[in-house]
Design brief:
- By secondary structure, the protein is of the alpha+beta class.
- The protein has four domains: 193 residues, Triger factor/SurA peptide-binding fold; 140 residues, no CATH class; 112 residues; 105 residues, Chitinase A, domain 3 (Roll).
- Helices cover 48% and strands 17% of the residues.
- The protein contains 22 helices and 20 strands.
- Strands 5, 16, 17, 18 and 19 form a five-stranded antiparallel β-sheet that branches. It has a four-stranded antiparallel β-sheet with strand order 13-6-15-14, with helices on both faces.
- A hairpin with a 3-residue loop joins strand 10 and strand 11.
């Protein structure tokens, strides 16, 4: 709720809307019942939850956030499947929040926004306006307005309301706390021996027959994928658009024809004292009215309005400022409050308490500004920038149209078309989806078009404002490789595989001998000319030097502490046999100092596990009831496209 009394419907339409309309240079944000909005017509629906779509645009929005954190492209493509499942789960939990009737109120939405971004969006307690709001979300948060507002509703409905309902009853017992203390602070000393497969590769000498047999057994692994050659024009209008000179007469004409853009509505500067009556009984409300009338009489007798506001107002947003609301325009306030405030003369206050949906108000008008139009001198440069952007956009569209026309008329000679238009040209020999040329633009839509569009026809693809115009002359069909084409690759694969098998066998022999020998692991290792390493005491989050984290050995390193031989365990290219020499338990005296922090950590983990289980159950339930529809063919095609483009 903005300042506790502004009209909630109006405020939320401004702040929490789901659809952004750009009309000329103005922006209006509107709250719509479908918080997730209609699917972008340019995107593809990958799944639906109770009729709400999960689209490729949704996935791209999530990927943009990861890219902003410098996540490598290959990692992004690997995580795309998880992103899709998380988006499906998000829709399920949002639907469940609605079904349970625990959706956040408008007051909570507005208050949350003002609490998390007070200086950015509400400097001095006043909303910055739609244009500044959009700019902040795009530039600082790197999201669209729709994405940001969707996240706000997600956080409040799911993370605050639903999560609390599911997990508030969870607690941590003293026994659980003590167990976690020891799991965190106990340490072990480990003795280990490893057999490194990489060092055994030189001992693998395959014959021609073995290599051919390996090739035949793994023939699909070496199949040559379909390939296509490509001729490509890249049209980047952003970098080519000219800077136009905008004349004063053009600016003046635009100003005269679009004065509505520069209107300043009537506004007033108000103070108020609020006597809150929400959730009060009729009897309590009558008592509150009596209190308001008493304060009003003191004001009539000469009491200072600002001091009385500090003492009596229930509006925490401005009571300490003497009830100062700053400048207020029509449509920002509760209707009854607004009508009374705008009816006042400068310096006057309401003759009686004014009833709004929040309580009773005593209102004083300090200053009034009548409606006006900003003079041309104030908006000249704004208009110049708008006209410049409009001309530049027209240049971009015209350039793309000229390039496409030239390409279609060139009958496949895109090099000539590129020279005619003055845009970059590239030509690539045949390549497959899995082996893209290093200099090919990493655009998923371009790669999809290369392999999906008909051969011998000009096609287009785009990424943001860059447009690609391509032409494929032929298709080289997929086929099985001959042994001669891939013999070196087959040899390397065979050597790596056999060396790993050899290392596993030797480590198995080592473990067997160590269990049988009276001298244990050290004696068995010496007989096989292998080095024994004894670690320092390490906790669960420690490491074993060149072997890496002790956690790679498994939980047995901390639970089987009687010196029993464990393994072999695969760690990278090594196979490891080990035993725990000693477990050193942490002194529980330290638990008193770190107990509260550790309890909170454990409580958070338990709540997260509970909520994760709840989420999995709800996704399963919605799926079984036919409320979750996954379009697996589209999902797999999209994931494959991302993988190839990474």
């Amino acid at each position: 709720m903005l300042k506790l009394f502004r009209n909630r419907g109006k405020a939320l339409r401004w702040i929490m809307g789901g659809i952004l309309f750009l009309v000329a240079a103005s922006m209006v944000i509107t709250l719509v019942p479908n918080v997730f909005g209609p699917a972008d017509p340019a995107s593809e629906v990958l799944a639906e939850v109770s009729g709400q779509p999960v689209t490729t645009s949704d996935v791209e929005a999530a990927l943009r956030q990861l890219r902003a954190n410098n996540i490598p492209p290959e990692v992004l493509s690997m995580n795309a499947g998880s992103i899709i499942e998380n988006l499906i789960a998000e829709r399920v939990l949002f639907a469940e929040s609605s079904a349970l009737g625990i959706m956040p109120t408008e007051e909570e939405l507005a208050r949350w926004l003002q609490e998390i971004l007070p200086d950015a969006l509400f400097p001095g307690g006043q909303f910055v306006g739609a244009r500044a709001y959009e700019g902040f979300i795009r530039q600082q948060l790197r999201q669209t307005v729709t994405e940001f507002e969707r996240r706000v509703l997600y956080e409040l409905a799911i993370e605050l309301r639903l999560r609390r309902m599911v997990t508030d009853g969870i607690s941590v017992t003293d026994q659980e706390l003590k167990q976690r203390f020891h799991e965190t602070n106990d340490s072990v000393q480990v003795e280990w021996v490893s057999v490194d497969a990489d060092r055994l590769q030189s001992q693998v000498s395959p014959s021609s027959e073995q290599l051919r047999e390996y090739f035949e057994s793994n023939k699909l692994r070496y199949r040559q994928a379909e390939q296509r050659p490509l001729r490509l024009l890249t049209v980047d209008p952003q970098g080519i658009a000219e800077q136009h000179d905008i004349s004063d007469s053009e600016i003046e004409l635009y100003y005269s024809q679009n004065q509505y853009r520069f209107e300043q509505p009537e506004r007033v500067k108000l103070r108020h004292i609020l006597f809150m009556t929400e959730d009060e009984s009729e009897e309590q409300s009558d008592a509150t009215l009596g209190e308001a009338e008493g304060v009003l009489q003191q004001l009539r007798d000469g009491a200072d309005f600002a001091e009385m506001a500090k003492e009596h107002s229930d509006d925490p947003g401005n009571a300490d400022r003497g009830g100062d609301l700053g400048w207020v325009s029509r449509g920002m306030m509760d209707p009854a409050f607004e009508e009374a405030g705008f009816a006042l003369q400068v310096g006057a206050m309401t003759p009686a308490p004014v009833k709004s949906q929040f309580g009773y108000h005593l209102i004083r008008l300090d200053e009034r500004q009548t409606g006006s139009v900003k003079p041309l001198s104030e908006v000249r440069e704004v208009i110049r920038g708008d006209l410049q952007a409009e001309r530049s956009q027209s240049d971009r569209y015209a350039l793309v149209e000229r390039a496409l026309t030239a390409a279609e008329q060139a009958d496949g000679d895109l090099r000539g078309a590129a020279e005619q238009i003055g845009v970059p040209f590239q030509e690539f020999p045949p390549f497959s989806r899995s082996e893209l040329p290093a200099t090919l633009p990493k655009s998923a839509s371009l790669i999809q078009a290369i392999f999906d569009q008909p051969v011998g026809e000009v096609f287009t693809a785009s990424q943001e404002e860059t447009v690609y115009i391509g032409f494929v002359t032929e298709t080289v069909p997929a086929r099985d490789s001959t042994f001669e084409e891939v013999d070196s690759t087959v040899r390397q694969d065979y050597v790596v595989t056999e060396a790993a098998n050899l290392a596993r066998e030797r480590a198995g022999t080592l473990a067997e001998n160590a269990r049988e020998a009276s001298a244990g692991l050290a004696s068995a290792a010496r007989r096989m000319s292998l080095a024994v390493v004894t670690s320092d005491f390490v906790r669960r989050d420690g490491d074993l030097g060149e072997l890496g984290p002790v956690s790679a050995l498994g939980e047995e390193a901390f639970t089987k502490t009687d010196g029993e031989i464990q393994g072999p365990v695969a760690i990278g290219s090594r196979w490891v046999v080990f035993r725990t020499i000693e477990l050193r338990q942490a002194d529980e005296a330290a638990l008193a100092a770190e107990g509260d922090s550790l309890r909170q950590t454990l409580l958070s983990e338990k709540r997260n596990r509970m909520f994760d289980y709840f989420r999995e159950q709800k996704v399963r339930e919605y799926t079984e009831n036919g409320l979750v529809l996954r379009y697996e063919d589209r999902i797999q095609a999209y994931l494959g496209l991302l993988q190839r483009a990474s």
